[in-house]
């Protein structure tokens, strides 16, 4: 609801209330006038006994317990004013509720986005940590190829080739993670800028330690803003080969 | 005529009141639905990212 709608509704409500007040004042004044006229008529009727001619306003005798002439309009003005004020109050409430609903919906959506982003990052850390562990193990990890389906016996790769393959796998995993972030962004998730940096250092490719592992960032903070609240997420990753980061969500 | 007049006013005011109540009910229903959908999706994500 924009400021123009609010101002318009507020004006209608004010006019309605003013109308209601005016109507009320008018009918009070009319009642006063009528009471004065009745008192006058009663005074006049006393003169009947003294043989005077009765000077009674015809208006008093035409009253018959209901408002006459322009006085009925005053009560209707009152009613119309009240109806107008109540209707605009209703419209205002409907608009406010509509806005609140949209805010709550967006809050839930952003909360789920945060959950999903944390989940994806945890998965990334698990996979990158495992690959880093393989690189850390060095030549020993080529034995794993021998054990896994005997590929090592058939191909006999050198450690350098295996290391390059592991590093390539890390790059691919990183790309998949970025793809997931793009998917989240497309579904209207408001990702903070820091999330794009990720838990591993990167220039045009992943930054490596001297032994070839992907270098991690020690910690990071994401501030996740929703229409109703703000989440502060902090993660800490001690070593590149760790498969679990420490997460704190406030 | 007076009875008709009173009936019309009563109808007008009760329309407003019924409108207010129905908007409120609709709002409550909508909120409950949103919360249920959120809970369902949350459990789904919990299951997916369970490590």
Structure description:
The complex is a heterodimer of chains A (250) and B (51). Chain A is 64% helix and 7% strand. Chain A has seven helices and three strands, in the order αααααααβββ. Chain A has helices spanning 3-46, 58-62, 70-137, 142-147, 151-155, 159-186, 194-197; strands at 219-225, 230-236, 246-249. A three-stranded antiparallel β-sheet of chain A has the order 1-2-3, with no helix packed on it. In chain A, strand 1 (219-225) and strand 2 form a beta hairpin. The longest helix of chain A has 68 residues, at 70-137. Chain A is rod-shaped, with a radius of gyration of 41 Å. In chain A, 16% of the residues are buried. Chain B is mostly helical. Chain B contains one helix and no strands. The longest helix of chain B is centred in the middle third of the chain and has 47 residues, at 2-48. Chain B is rod-shaped, with a radius of gyration of 22 Å.
Offer a few descriptive terms.
heterodimer, A: 250 residues, mainly alpha, 3-stranded antiparallel sheet, 3 strands, 64% helix, B: 51 residues, 1 helix, 92% helix
What is the fold's blueprint, element by element?
The complex is a heterodimer of chains A (250) and B (51).
Chain A: H1 3-46, H2 58-62, H3 70-137, H4 142-147, H5 151-155, H6 159-186, H7 194-197, E1 219-225, E2 230-236, E3 246-249
Antiparallel strand pairs in A: 1-2, 2-3
Helix pairs in contact in A: 1-3, 3-6
Chain B: H1 2-48
């Amino acid at each position: 609801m924009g400021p123009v709608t609010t101002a318009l509704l507020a004006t209608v409500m004010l006019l309605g209330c003013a109308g209601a007040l005016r109507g009320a004042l008018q009918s009070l004044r009319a009642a006063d006038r009528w009471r004065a006229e009745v008192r006058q008529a009663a005074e006049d009727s006393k003169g009947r006994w003294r043989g005077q001619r009765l000077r009674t306003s015809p208006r008093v005798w035409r009253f018959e317990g209901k408002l006459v002439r322009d006085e009925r309009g005053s009560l209707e003005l009152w009613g119309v004013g009240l109806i107008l004020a109540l209707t605009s109050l209703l419209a205002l409430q409907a608009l406010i509720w509509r806005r609140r609903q949209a805010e709550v919906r967006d809050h839930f959506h952003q909360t789920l986005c945060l959950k999903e982003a944390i989940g994806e990052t945890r998965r990334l850390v698990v996979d990158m940590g495992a690959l880093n562990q393989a690189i850390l193990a060095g030549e020993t990890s080529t034995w794993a190829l021998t054990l896994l389906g005997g590929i090592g016996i058939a191909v006999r790769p050198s450690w350098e080739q295996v290391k390059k393959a592991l590093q390539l796998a890390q790059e691919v995993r990183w790309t998949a993670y970025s793809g997931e972030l793009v998917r989240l962004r497309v579904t209207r998730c408001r990702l903070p800028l820091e999330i794009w940096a990720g838990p591993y250092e990167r220039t045009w490719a992943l930054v490596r330690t001297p032994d070839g592992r992907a270098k991690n960032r020690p910690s990071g903070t994401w501030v996740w803003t929703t229409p109703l609240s703000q989440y502060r997420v902090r993660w800490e990753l001690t070593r590149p080969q760790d498969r679990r980061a420490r997460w704190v969500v406030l | 005529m007076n009875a008709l007049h009173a009936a019309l006013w009563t109808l007008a005011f009760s329309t407003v009141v019924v409108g207010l109540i129905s908007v409120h009910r609709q709002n409550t229903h909508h909120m409950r639905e949103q919360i249920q959908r959120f809970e369902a999706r949350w459990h789904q994500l919990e299951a997916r990212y369970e490590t």
